[in-house]
Amino acid sequence: MKKSKNIFILFMLMMTCVVGMEAEDGSSLWLRNSLQADMLAAMVTLTVDIQTKATQSDSATLRLAAKELMENWSGAPVTLRYTVDNSLGKDCFSIEKVETTDTESDFQFVVSASSPSGILYGVYFLLRAQSRHDVCLCTTLPPSHKIQQKPYFMSRSIAGQEAIFDILKKGRIADYARANASIGINGIILTPPRHPSKHYQEKVSELAAILQPYCISIYQSGDTIPALRCTPVTTDKRQTGIDETYIYHATVWRSMMLNSSQRNVVAHVAVSSQPSWCPNDNHLEQANWFAFGRLAWDPTLLPEQVAHEWLADTFSENPLFILPMRRAMTDCDGTGISKIETLLNTWREVADAVDEQRHTEVENALNVMLEQLDS
Q: Is the pTM value of this prediction over 0.85?
């Protein structure tokens, strides 16, 4: 592919045209928006309201938000405005498109929030929109028009303790924290041993220090956390312990959230220390992790909308790929259970609409599962 002079367009084309990259292992999840070496860093300005006192931990989160943009954003200039003059409340943000007199850009985005977490979530909103080329946001949003968002639930995930400490040992906790923060998950729950050792407490402290800039708190299972538990539906397994079926939980979770008076929500999110984060390397399970965070933020989203976002962010925005895969996923919503083989056949039918590396990644993962089922 010829090198384009238009860096922004080149970036968007990378969703369907991969150039000389390392083999994809699924570890980037829905955050496949890293800049290439020949791309310019984003123009990012961070302003702090004179009435707003930024603590050391606040500053760490604000610096992280700015760093995310500088490394991964290739659109118009962005100003991050940490201010007390924001009526949205904690964790909320607004994004405004403002005309400028800058010679390099006709407008800029202003992300405003009254908390560091709000700034961080606003940044991830921009990056997710960029990765799927959200036209409404990036090109046609009128000047001085605001997008305002606030979380509906305080979302936490119950994570397998052994897996989390293994991820910590492998130096991947920051990546795990980034994945959670990018979809608004703000806490993880650990089950401590009956008699916690000093070594255990040290590991928890190390974990907490890495999670803190991402606005993620650690809770122990003994803590009092009134919550609606969104536990995934359990499937029948063979003796190999491998799931024969696949269930997309968005429909069940959405129904539970919309009919709950609670404002805390907890889900068992299955993660592992494997590169793809998925037990048994089933990359499709990433969709349930993504769906939990997105629905906790906005339970009015339809399961089809969430599936569409995940497929576009993770694989390709090509409708020839998204539409059949979305249909296959939403047929597996807890009321209808689909065999992995059905999804594999759908994947093969639309493979030409996805870049070769991403296609190989998922087909290999599904084939491994089928082989284990047949063994």
A: no
- Strand arrangement, sheet containing 44-48: 44-48, 78-82, 107-113, 93-99, 146-149
| Element of type H or E holding 358 | helix 356-374
Classified as helix, coil or strand, 125 is helix
| pLDDT (tens digit per residue) in 308-346 | 999 888 887 777 778 878 887 887 666 666 665 666 677
Q: Cβ neighbours of residue 261 under 8 Å, at least 6 residues apart?
A: none
CA neighbor of 344 nearest in space, from 373, 317, 318: 373
Which amino acid is present at 65?
A
Residue 249 token pair: 């939980």
Q: How far apart are the first and last CA of the chain?
A: 42
The pLDDT, as a whole number, for residue 86 is 61
Rounded Cα distance between 65 and 43, Å, is 13
Measured in whole angstroms, the distance separating CA 174 from the mean position of its chain's CA atoms is 13
CA distance 285 to 274: 13
Average pLDDT of the residues in 146-165: 81
For 71-90, how does the pLDDT look when each residue is reduced to its tens digit (9 = 90+)? Answer: 888 878 888 988 876 676 78
**Residue 185 vs residues 64, 312, 339: alpha-carbon distances, Å:** 16, 20, 29
Residue 277 has pLDDT above 70, yes or no: yes
Largest CA distance in the chain: 66
